[in-house]
From TrEMBL:
Residues 1-35, 544-579 are annotated as: Disordered. Its main location: membrane. The chain crosses the membrane at residues 53-71, 91-111, 132-147, 220-240, 307-340, 352-378, 390-411, 423-441, 453-474, 486-508, 514-533. It is found in: Membrane. Residues 1-11 have a biased composition (Gly residues). Residues 560-579 have a biased composition (Low complexity). One of its GO terms (molecular function) is glycosyltransferase activity. InterPro entries: MptA/B-like. It comes from the Bacteria. The keyword Lyase does not apply. This is Alpha-1,6-mannosyltransferase. It is a multi-pass membrane protein. One of its GO terms (cellular component) is membrane. It comes from Goodfellowiella coeruleoviolacea.
Amino acid sequence: MVAGGVKGQAAGGARQHDGSGNPQDGHARDDWPDQPAPLDAAERRLLDLIRRFGTVGALLLAAGSLGTGAAPVFNPVPGVPVLGLFTRMPAVSLAIAWTGIFMVVLAWIWLGRLVRPGRPRLLSRTQLDRTLVMWAAPLIFAMPMFSRDVYSYLAQSEIAARGIDPYVVGPAPALGVDHPLTRGVPNIWRETPAPYGPLFLAVGRVISWIVGNHVMTGVLVHRLLALVGVAMIVWALPRLARRFGVQPVSALWLGAANPLVLFHMVVGVHNEALAIGLMLVGVEVALRGLPRLVPGEPVPPRQPGEFAWVALGATLITLGAMVKIPAALALGFLGVLIARRWGGRLVDLLRVALLLAVVFVGVTALVSAGTGLGIGWIGTLDVAKTVKSWMSPVTALGFLGGGLGILLGLGNHTESTIALFRLIGQGVSVLICATLLWQSFRGRIKALNGLGAGLAAVLVLGPVLQPWYVLWAALPLATAMVGPRFRVLTVAGSALIAVVLPPTGATFDGRTYVLSQSVVAGLIVVGLCLLALHRRLRPMWRRDGARPTTADHPAASGEPIASDQPPAPDQPATAKAAD
């Protein structure tokens, strides 16, 4: 009966392609079908094992960071009893860190078994929240890992705190090469101005006023700022998922509990957490003011309050762009959603575009003037071009073209070929984003899917590509994509990226054998753990009677799920007992 009802809803939903109730327009209905049952006793025991396995991994990663993390030049850890032992055993610390990385990734993959769309029994929101807290809590106190960007944040914030324009000079000219904050900045960034928005540097300036030159305290405060961004992501993901027909716990698992979030936003302290958090919250806030649309009924007239909600959401997205500019792309896809709600005509799209443009320009001007940093940030948006990394596909093609020219005896034109391929990449990304915007406006794809794909195109075809850039695309897509192929690709990609980047945040200077030996040691330890736990892991592989997502799950059929449907009556009590 449930399958028949869902098929009937899918047939009705196909007629709502004009924006009246289809989940791709972000307007949920009150027809969420039967709620999944809570986990049974065996699955709760399995959940407890997964939680503890991931928590032990997070603890090992935090411990390993003491000896192998991206520690500051003036590192206080060596002088601390017991903890200082890790700094004298870098190879052992690296093996401990790799063991923790593998354990967290495995625990996350196992947890996905309990949140797979279409299961008759599903992990509750409370259980997932507690799992996320258990895994993230040990990482709050870890040394920075995987990157040294946080030291650039501290140095550039100190420049702003001194009244110097961080968009004109870099840390070395402004602070001096021997300054404690400058010495933590990677050499390639010591001479370059800040590539971040004025809002982020204004917040960093306040942090600098508070902590001064104390590096470790500054790192901790910046990590707390990143946690604020993660909290915004946790708040927005399930709400957006309901609007676009995805189980909230599935979106949270794929998004907030993703190892890339834990490793690069929490441990790595990247300001992507704040930028993406503001972007997602802005989209949700803008949609909250729009009335729920009922299939078969006329579109209700616009209410005055709609403009206020849209303006507030657009303001939050713009603030995210004032941290990192890619967040501004969300304004385009938000405009498509609103235009479809307001009639779906080209004139409606133009009106929304004008409204959002006014908000963007106004908020940008206020932030730039209010922070006292001006609009110099516009001129530093291309600072990343100074880095020539093979990880960027267009830069790699430029290197390849230059190398072929040398082999053919045409001379060394590597710089020119890199510039040419980067220009082509930027043009292609603009074309892709324009196509995705038009397809979203015509109702052919969900706007959040378009946003995720557009951000992926902008960053993959950009001059520099870093592993944590994947989160710009993965988090919006987690709220709107439910297909099994997407889940498999996302899980495989996230797991692969999470384990290929060394946790040190630096090269090994010819000592690659240390890295390989540490990885092998970590794999051996994890293998022994799996051997010891194989009996307790057996329930994970049993048949759970899950319905095929592509046929029976309402999200897969394109049908919306109510955004405020209460859970099953017995679920809260059962979940409480389970936790």
